[in-house]
Design goal:
About 55% of the residues lie in helices and about 0% in strands. By secondary structure, the protein is mainly alpha-helical. The chain has a domain of about 90 residues. α1 runs antiparallel to α3 and α1 runs parallel beside α4.
C-alpha cells in the first residue's frame, strides 16, 4: 500500500489542527454558516468546536475540505475516521497529541522510522481476531454516507 496518501492525510489533519502554528485571533473568522453545504458536511464532526477555533485553524480546515473531492476513496475514508476521532478527544488529549507530534518531528529520521514500525506492529497485535483487516462495508460518517458533490 502506498504510504504517500496516508502521510498526506495525516500531515494535513495535524497541520490543520495543530495549535503550535495558530497565532491568529478569532477576528474575521469564517463562521460555520458561511461554509458551503459540502464543507459543512465534510467538517461536520467539528461543528461543536468551530466557534472556539482560531482564524488559522478554520482556514486550514477549509483548505483541507476543498481538497477532499480530489482525494482517493481510501484517503477520504482515513480523513473521515481521523477527523471524527479528533473531534471526540478532550482539549487535554488534543494538546497531548500535538505535543507528541512535535516531539516526534524533532527526532532523527531513523528514530522516527523505528517508532513508526513499533506503532504499526502494536496496531496489528491489537486487531480483534474476528474483525477482517479490510471492512466489507466502508466505515463512513453518517453525514458523508452519500457522495459529496464539489461546490
Amino acid at each position: 500500500m502506498d504510504q504517500k496518501p496516508f502521510r498526506a492525510v495525516v500531515f494535513c489533519l495535524l497541520l490543520a489542527l495543530s495549535s503550535v502554528c495558530f497565532a491568529g485571533g478569532r477576528n474575521n473568522a469564517t463562521e460555520w454558516r458561511e461554509l458551503t453545504p459540502t464543507q459543512q458536511q465534510i467538517l461536520a464532526p467539528l461543528v461543536s468546536q468551530w466557534d472556539g477555533m482560531t482564524v488559522l485553524q478554520r482556514s486550514r480546515l477549509i483548505a483541507v475540505a476543498k481538497q477532499y473531492p480530489k482525494m482517493t476513496p481510501e484517503a477520504r475514508l482515513r480523513f473521515q475516521k481521523r477527523i471524527k476521532a479528533w473531534a471526540l478527544l478532550t482539549r487535554e488529549q488534543r494538546e497531548e497529541a500535538r505535543e507528541n507530534y512535535r516531539r516526534l518531528k524533532r527526532l532523527p529520521k531513523k528514530q522516527r522510522e523505528a517508532i513508526k514500525q513499533r506503532w504499526e506492529a502494536k496496531q496489528q497485535t491489537h486487531l480483534p481476531a474476528a474483525e477482517p483487516t479490510t471492512p466489507a462495508k466502508p466505515d463512513v460518517m453518517p453525514a458523508l454516507a452519500s457522495p459529496i458533490q464539489p461546490s
